[in-house]
Structures are given as structure tokens and as C-alpha cells.
Amino acid sequence: MAFTPLLEDLIDALRCLPGVGQKSAQRMAFQLLERGREGGWALSRTLAAALEKIGRCETCQNFSETPQCPLCQDASRETDIMCVVESPADVMAIEQARDYRGQYFVLMGHLSPIDGIGPEEIGVDKLLQRVTREGTRELIIATNPTVEGETTAHYIADRLADNGVLITRLAQGIPVGGELGYIDGSTLVHAFTGRKPLAG
Amino acid sequence: MAFTPLLEDLIDALRCLPGVGQKSAQRMAFQLLERGREGGWALSRTLAAALEKIGRCETCQNFSETPQCPLCQDASRETDIMCVVESPADVMAIEQARDYRGQYFVLMGHLSPIDGIGPEEIGVDKLLQRVTREGTRELIIATNPTVEGETTAHYIADRLADNGVLITRLAQGIPVGGELGYIDGSTLVHAFTGRKPLAG
Ligand SMILES: [Zn+2]
Ligand SMILES: [Zn+2]
Questions:
Q1: Do residue B26 and residue A69 have CB atoms under 8 angstroms apart?
Q2: Zinc fingers (C4-type) span which residues (chains A, B) (predicted)?
Q3: Which of A52, B56, B60, B170 has its CA 20 to 30 A from that of A127?
Q4: Would you call A36 and B53 a contact, using CB atoms and an 8 Å cutoff?
Q5: Which CATH superfamily is domain A5-53 in?
């Protein structure tokens, strides 16, 4: 053994982080001990506090340390439009675009029968109750454009078929700034299918 | 703000890790909260224990949670040869090659006057005392083949000029498995200068 046991333990523990293998974990451990002790203490404390206090928002299921998350508490947001996403990272990305000002519902995953993840696990009933209770006018189902995301979107749309709410999906096509030659075929098919007349 | 405050704090805290930017820190925080809570608790606890208990070995300056590190305590190692390296990662790499069985001295850096790092900061006096006390026969100065590493090596060699210890540097040349066409010019110069007759 080349390392003192606690250092080996620290390297092992750092490997629980996504994308961190043995080499990066070593580098992280060395830096924390050599130059980053203050940051290391802050990380240890903040991580414990976050794990202890962060649960789910009762309304939208997003991460929250209070019963209602800051977005659900924000009275200035529109109440008749709701966006369904798979993860908190999606909420973050949409908020950073600073365009959408409605409500959210975070599934924290997608339907995946093979992993035992059914409608109950992702909170579909809760979503349906909210749509009815809040009189949602439009539900944007922004699950990922993957097989699982599409399946989840269709399942939710089916369950709401008789509700009268307008159900929409995000447009698929060429990303802004994207180069045509580097875009995959199925995105191109969507881009052609969804083509629009050029105004002017 | 799209995230609950503690989650923002956790993302900030994770950015103290080397190579972790905003996006990776977000991904790490989400994974710790979504699926990795057990690993997260272990990381928080192990990190606190490591920061509290890991200091320096009194003999070789490597990380250790005991006054003497496991390598310095190992009575089966040769005592008349010592290898000077810049960091604990170097000790790790050398130990993994399973060839060298002598002592170590870890500078925890290199001379860098511009950063206020002089001989005292990297423990040169301590190294010299050890060489004299232990009657070291050969001192392999395995600092990095960089300007700072070479400067540090020459400084230590100068200080030991009258000591009688044999001072060596690691051979420089083509890495095993390296492709000639992809090796930088200065390595090639070293490889040519240090060429050896082919036995046979
Ligand atoms: Zn909420
Ligand atoms: Zn030691």
C-alpha cells in the first residue's frame, strides 16, 4: 500500500461522484489535502447539510429545502401554463433561457418498466391532480427526445385526453448555431417536417 | 434563482474540486441528491476525517495519519537508497511499478521563488539531515523534467556536493510503447544523447 488508509478511503469516497475514476479521485484527494483544505471543509459541511435538508417540493417535485420550492412560491409566475420535465437540470436550463414564466412539474426520471419505474414513481397522479386543481390551460411536455421520454410524454397525454388541457411538445429541429453537416439524420427529418414559411 | 439555496451552495462547494466546472458540479450535485445519498454521506464523513487526521510523515513528508507513514514504517525496505519526488502522486506511480524498494522524500512541490517557495518550504534541510543521519548511499532526485523540477534537482545536488552521496536523475527518453513520430523534439534529443549499445 502506497497511501495511508484514510487517504485510500477518501479516494474511494470521491469515486461516488459521476465521471470520477481512480486517477481523478487521486488528483482531487491530493489537491484537497495539499492546497484545498478550506474548500474541503466547506464541501464536507455543505454536502451533509444538503443531504439532510434537501427533499422534494410538495407541488412540483423539484429539489427543495422548504415544503414549496422558490419557483412554486414565486407569485409573479403564470399559473395557467405548466412545463413537465424529467430533471432539475432541465428546469435550470429553461430558467437560464429566461423566456418561460409558467409552472413546472419535475418527474425526476421517466417511465422505465424494466427498472420498475412506473407512473406512480414519477408522480403522474400528482401531476394530473395539479392540472385539474389549478385549471392548467396548456401543458408543455418537455421530456427528453428519447424513446423513454417520448413514451412518458405519450402516456401522460393519454391520461389527460379527456381533460381539455392543451398538450404540447417542444419543437424539434436544427439547434441555433448548429451546422447542417453535423446534425444527425433524425433531427434533420424533424427539421424538414416542421419547416415553416419564411416571413418577409 | 432556479435552485433552492442549499443546492446552489452544494454546487459552489463541489467546484473546489480540480477540473470541476459549473456543469459538472451541477451534475454531481443532482446525482448525489437523486441516487447517491449513501455515497454522499460517506464522502462528507470521510472528507472531514481525512482533513482532520491526515498530516505529514515526520520522516518523508508524505501524507500520513500517523507520525510515520506506512512506507517509512516498512522495515523490509532498503535504507541506503532514497528517492526524492515532488508529490505523493509520484510515490504512488513508482510504487505501482513495483521495482524500487528504497526510501522516499516528498518535497510537496518544487522551488518557485516567484511564489515564495524556497528550500525551507519544501524541506531541503530536513532531506539533507536525513541523508547524513541514515548514511544514504544513493539519492535519486526524481523531480519532474520541467524547468522548476530541474532547478530544484540542481539546487539539492549542489547542497550535497561535499556529502559523498551518489546523486542520480531518472533516465529520459522514449516512453515504453511510445511512437517515435509523436514524441516531442526535446525528448528525442535526450533519447539520442542517452543511447546505449544493443546487447546481443
Ligand atoms: Zn416547486
Ligand atoms: Zn514517511
A1: no
A2: 57-72
A3: A52
A4: no
A5: RecR Domain 1 (1.10.8.420)
Task: Give the pLDDT confidence score for residue A97 in this predicted structure.
Answer: 80
Q: Which residues of A touch B4 (CB under 8 A)?
A: 54, 62-66, 69-70
Pick the closest to residue A50 from B131, B138, B137, B6 (CA basis).
Answer: B6
Task: Give tens-digit pLDDT for A72-102.
Answer: 999 999 999 999 999 988 898 888 888 889 9
Answer yes or no: do B39 and A13 touch at CB < 8 A.
yes
Q: What is the pLDDT of residue A55?
A: 95
- Domain A56-167: which CATH number of 3.40.1360.10, 3.40.50.300, 1.10.3720.10, 3.30.9.10: 3.40.1360.10
- Listed residue (A65, A170, A162) closest to B33, CA to CA: A65
Q: Per residue in A30-65, pLDDT tens?
A: 999 988 889 999 999 999 999 999 999 999 999 999
Q: Closest approach of chain B CAs to the CA of A41, in angstroms?
A: 6
Residues of chain A neighbouring B9 (CB-CB closer than 8 A): 46, 49-50
**Ramachandran bin of B177, using left for φ above 0, alpha for ψ from -120 to 50, beta for the remaining angles:** left
Are the beta carbons of A130 and A105 closer than 8 angstroms?
yes
The three grid cell numbers given for residue B143, joined into one nine-digit string: 523531480
At a CB cut-off of 8 Å and minimum separation 6, what does B43 contact?
A13, A14, A16, A17, A44, A47, B32
**Strand, helix or coil at A3?**
coil
Amino acid at B140: I
Spatial separation of the C-alpha atoms in residues A28 and A8, rounded to whole Å: 12
Distance from CA of A194 to the nearest CA of B (A): 31
pLDDT at position A199 is 61
Nearest CA in chain B to A92: B2
- Residues in chain B within 8 Å Cβ distance of A18: 27-28, 31
| Nearest CB to A92; choose among B3, B33, B45 | B3
- Domains of chain A, residue spans: 5-53, 56-167, 170-200
Record: contact B69-A9, CB cut-off 8 A? no
